Amino acid sequence: MQKLMVNGVEHQLDVPDDMPLLWVLRDVMGLTGTKYGCGIAQCGVCTVHLDGHATRSCVLPVSAVAGRQVTTIESVGEQPVGQAVQKAWLEHEVVQCGYCQSGQIMSAVALLTEHPKASDEQIVDAMSGNLCRCATYTRIRAAIKSVSQA
Amino acid sequence: MSDNQSSPALLSRRGLLKGGAALSGLIISAYLPPMVSRSFAADVVKGANLGDGAEKGYGAFVRIDHTGAVTVISPKIEMGQGVQTGIAMMVAEELEVPLSQVTIAEAPPNAALYTDPLLTFQATGGSTSTRYTWEPLRKAGAGARMVLIQAAALRWNVAPSLCRAENGRVLGPNNQSAGYGELVDAAAALPLPTDIPLKPINTFKLLGKSAQRLDTPHKVNGTAKFTIDLQVPGMLIASTRTCPVSGGTLRNLKNEAAAKAIAGVRDVVRLDNAVAVTATNFWACQQALNALDIEWDMGPHAGLDSAKLDKSLFDASAGDGVFAHKAGDIASALKNASSRFEAIYEQPFLSHSPLEPMTCVAHVRADECELWVGCQAPGLAQMGAAKVCGLPVEKVVIHNQLIGGGFGRRLESDFIFQAVDIARKLSYPIKLIWSREEDMTHDRYRPHYVDRLNAALDKDLRPVGWEHRIAGASVVAAYLGGLPADGVDFDAVEVAKDPIYTLKDLQVRYIRHDPEVIPVSWWRGVGPLRSTYAVECFIDELAHNAKADPVNYRLGLMQSQPRAQAVLRKAAEITGWDKPLPAGSGRGVAVSAVFGSFVATIVELEKQGAKGLRIKRLVTVIDCGFANNPTSVASQMEGGTLFGLSAALFNEILIENGQVQQTNFHQYRQIRMSDAPPVEVHIVDSVESPGGVGETGAVPAAAALVNALYAATGVRERRLPLSRSGYFTV
Ligand code: FES
Ligand code: FES
């Protein structure tokens, strides 16, 4: 039995210790907003927040999150920064296919929560672990800047 | 949005075949290449009857219900290119409804209705979507508006010319007003107007102005459902291990009991060339596949490697192949030239690697096969799936889905057939998800190409003409099952046989050389991308050979191409092309005229240390004719440019023992935010017919990069990717 706090709600789940959080979220809990892209922490589409920090859930055993707060794309919009980022994403029409964007947004929200006035360098540092095969980086940058300068 | 369960009803031919077909010839002649005999454009106008029941429609494309809500049936799948919003805008513009009143439904497979005349089958690819929908979809909207106005005029007993449509309503001369929903029944009974005029561009309210995409709000909050996110009742997850060598088979399988003992695992399924496991979750599938002891018969190609493949292609490229194009007399031109210039360019095998790996939900029952899958060619998927499960084609139902990146990969249906092959052996539906490793090592790759160019130069070192030999696997043959009688892969030689430069003598030879082991397919930018790389590097080399400025040299040779000249001039102006850069920095340019659009891209980079490259600036100018939704055009150019650079910098699929060596993104690196600055896009103002944009941005990127490298360092690299020669980004 694993005890999990996901999006503010406690869950008791019968899953193996070493099962990555990603698959617990997607296939056990049905929270499919968090995506699978590589499984080896290379692409960032599986990014969630663990106690507010951006983390790749594909390589995180579920046992490691016991007692910690997991936040996914499904609830990040309840935070003011999350809401601002989602709005900026739409205003800048960032999205192309959209598959990577849950992860991008989770990374951006973690960045802007820690550094509300993130510099260009901090933006590149925080976002370069998130691949976008449609290469929407130009607009991701612009959208983050619009929030950090607001 | 992707639920099209109700679509078959809408497509009942009853309504479609009534109505006048008088216009169909007109539309067809405007759109079809001569070899195509039918098109869904014809059916737009045949579908004058608005259908039956609660769902009223205008032919195959537009439905209006009793509340006035408008559904546009999109023959094109959304892969991030914004095409469905563009199509909705075309209909909304002519129908006089706000965009917010429109929703999109995916078209089911139906060749008679949804064949793209530019592609000759129902598919999304080749940057044809906007080009081909531009007239028929606006006509669908305009025709619907006309019969709605007519219905209102009859009701009020006034002349239709005194009524107008606005905001989803028809307004009459004496302040009468009726919503479309109230009018659909009456409108449905009216005959189709024989002449459907379209709104002049200067009266557009929606088209030409940036609109927010209809599909994006769900994509920023995690609620958008891609195939990988679907859940159908009773479904289990499936994953496969496929024989690592193409053409190999499954010989033996042991340890099944251990695999099945893993929590959540249900079945182990043997296929001819693969093993599948089903389980309650993807992780358990992977654990079980790892636990299995699989013995492969690697088949006849297990000894192949990249060195052998490279050599055989390189040797073949010196051969004569077949003529793809012949103008003037290049042999005499070369003989009489005051000098000659030769170069050989190479482009590697490439994987598509969309971030959503290949995924398909399949349920095969005794009498029906139901598929939920994001695919670019649903008609072909349907036909092939029928074969695999032994059911008639009409018993295969495809629910097309949002696509998490296509780039050509989902024009192929191999993974769909594998899902059907597994599901037909099981009593429950499955969601087949390929691991990234399966996805990368079992792709259908962009072919490896060798281009040899040999130019005859005049005394001013300008080309009189050149010979261009193109050698590589034929994607056309792989996809369509053969080549036309002339033996030419018409895709591979595009651009090469019709360059923007005026050449008196031009000869293009095509040398087909299919690798033994590597399946090949379409890759974003297709033939024009590969040929543009060779031609734009070559012209740059010729310019430097002539000690001429690469922009001016090009301009002097493209007198018959005013739109190409204009984008090149504009890009040069924006970047300050004339202002010199410090030593170690340089600018490179490339121009393309493909998919009905004209692009000039300039890369500015700085060399750091021996092989470090810092990309400092990226500028791209596009003339795509009338830009329906300018923000989407810009977005495609930004992404396309970086997509092209990503491959040119880093990507190459290599083979060892018949097996693809790149298994995941640590070995097949993609461009990241830290690798490149923002892309600056300039869109030329134009009222010409819209050109394609989905692939256009990627086309000139590689040549511009390589030309910039030369400008910065004096080193001419001709073989991609640059990482092969030790370059890296800083
Ligand atoms: S799926 Fe986790 S980083 Fe790629
Ligand atoms: S939007 Fe397609 S992968 Fe990022």
Automatic annotation (TrEMBL), chain A:
Query: Where does the 2Fe-2S ferredoxin-type domain lie?
Result: 1-76
The record, for SUPFAM superfamilies, names:
2Fe-2S ferredoxin-like, CO dehydrogenase ISP C-domain like
Q: Which InterPro entries match?
A: 2Fe-2S-bd (IPR002888), 2Fe-2S-bd_dom_sf (IPR036884), 2Fe-2S_ferredoxin-like_sf (IPR036010), 2Fe-2S_ferredoxin-type (IPR001041), 2Fe2S_fd_BS (IPR006058), Beta-grasp_dom_sf (IPR012675), Diverse_Oxidoreductases (IPR051452)
The keyword Lyase belongs to this UniProt entry's keyword annotation? no
Tell me one GO molecular function of this protein: metal ion binding
Gene3D superfamilies for the chain: 3.10.20.30, [2Fe-2S]-binding domain
**Keyword list, A-Z:** 2Fe-2S, Iron, Iron-sulfur, Metal-binding, Oxidoreductase
Q: Which PANTHER family match?
A: BLR6218 PROTEIN, OXIDOREDUCTASE WITH IRON-SULFUR SUBUNIT
Protein name, entry field: Isoquinoline 1-oxidoreductase, alpha subunit
From TrEMBL, chain B:
What's the domain of life for this entry?
A: Bacteria
Which ranges of the sequence are coiled-coil? Answer: none
Q: Name one GO molecular function term.
A: oxidoreductase activity
**Domain Aldehyde oxidase/xanthine dehydrogenase a/b hammerhead, residue spans:** 221-300
Q: Which InterPro entries match?
A: Ald_Oxase/Xan_DH_a/b, AldOxase/xan_DH_MoCoBD1, AldOxase/xan_DH_MoCoBD2, AldOxase/xan_DH_Mopterin-bd_sf, N-heterocyclic_Hydroxylase, OxRdtase_Mopterin-bd_su_IorB, TAT_signal
Q: Which SMART domains match?
A: Ald_Xan_dh_C (SM01008)
Q: What is this protein called?
A: Isoquinoline 1-oxidoreductase, beta subunit
Species this chain originates from: Pseudomonas abietaniphila
Upper lineage:
Bacteria, Pseudomonadati, Pseudomonadota, Gammaproteobacteria, Pseudomonadales
